[in-house]
């Protein structure tokens, strides 16, 4: 009986301590930060871009080797209410993708190893307009989801280049439209708000500029080529 009473007492004590640790109200940092109509900030981040292909005929997939890229940008935030914010986040995104073709694309033609590889360097000037939906703030953090649409200008697209893959130039369109979805957490400290977030981006339009030769092994079998990517951003406001 004594052992049972001791066990019950310890359980009740542990529940009390747990309740105090996890449910007790803490001092809020920057308590009035989110009450501003307009707020500003910047972000640094990493990105990884990929391509999604649709094909005309059943041939081996074009393999995409992704690389880790760098992102930097600015933030302007318009408060709508306690849970909704409209955000404009223009930024510069630098990345590279390598396309590896299967030799089956060149049956009946002479080719070298260089013909099987295309390096695509992209520098996007990115203009997203996003709606941020936040949960209720709990002490000094607040989770949220975010989504919207964006437009990008690819400064490295080669769209106007008269040379195509026959001269070693893989061309993409300069203007790309996206939709974006993501989530993150706002952390409040004494001086600023720090926000890590993860976001997926998905192109709406075909980005491929086809070669002059309609039977080109590099572009003839591609119906659509659309960018998709993941952003890991660290925001400071």
What does this structure look like?
- The protein has a single domain, classed as Porin (Beta Barrel), CATH 2.40.160.
- It is elongated, with a radius of gyration of 25 Å.
- The termini are far apart.
- The relative contact order is 0.19.
- By secondary structure, the protein is mainly beta.
- The protein has 1 helix and 10 strands, in the order H-E-E-E-E-E-E-E-E-E-E.
- Strand 8 and strand 9 form a beta hairpin.
- Strands 1, 2, 3, 4, 5, 6, 7, 8, 9 and 10 form a 10-stranded antiparallel sheet that branches.
Short structural description:
The chain has a single domain, classed as Porin (Beta Barrel). Helices cover 9% and strands 51% of the residues.
Itemize the secondary structure elements and their pairings.
Blueprint (H helix, E strand, L loop, with lengths): L1 H22 L14 E18 L7 E4 L1 E12 L4 E5 L2 E10 L16 E18 L6 E14 L20 E14 L4 E11 L18 E15 L1
Antiparallel strand pairs: 1-3, 1-10, 2-5, 3-4, 3-5, 4-6, 5-6, 6-7, 7-8, 8-9, 9-10
**What's the total count of β strands?**
10
CATH topology: Porin
* CATH C-level label: Mainly Beta
Secondary-structure element order, N to C? HEEEEEEEEEE
């Amino acid at each position: 009986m004594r052992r049972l009473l001791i066990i019950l007492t310890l359980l009740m004590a542990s529940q009390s301590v747990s309740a105090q640790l996890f449910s007790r109200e803490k001092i809020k940092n920057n308590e009035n930060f989110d009450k501003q109509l307009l707020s500003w900030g910047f972000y640094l981040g990493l990105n990884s871009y990929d391509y999604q292909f649709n094909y005309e005929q059943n041939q081996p997939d074009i393999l995409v080797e992704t690389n880790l890229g760098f992102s930097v940008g600015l933030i302007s935030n318009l408060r709508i209410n306690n849970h909704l914010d409209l955000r404009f986040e223009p930024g510069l995104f630098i990345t590279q993708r390598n396309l590896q073709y299967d030799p089956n694309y060149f049956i009946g033609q002479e080719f070298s190893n260089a013909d099987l590889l295309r390096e695509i360097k992209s520098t996007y000037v990115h203009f997203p307009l996003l709606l941020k939906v936040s949960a209720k703030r709990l002490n000094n953090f607040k989770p949220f989801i975010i989504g919207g649409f964006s437009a990008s200008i690819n400064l490295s697209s080669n769209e106007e280049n008269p040379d195509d893959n026959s001269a070693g130039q893989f061309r993409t369109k300069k203007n790309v439209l996206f939709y974006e979805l993501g989530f993150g957490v706002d952390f409040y400290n004494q001086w600023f708000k720090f926000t890590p977030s993860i976001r997926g981006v998905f192109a709406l339009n075909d980005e491929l500029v086809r070669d002059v030769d309609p039977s080109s092994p590099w572009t003839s079998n591609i119906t659509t080529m659309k960018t998709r990517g993941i952003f890991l951003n660290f925001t400071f406001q």
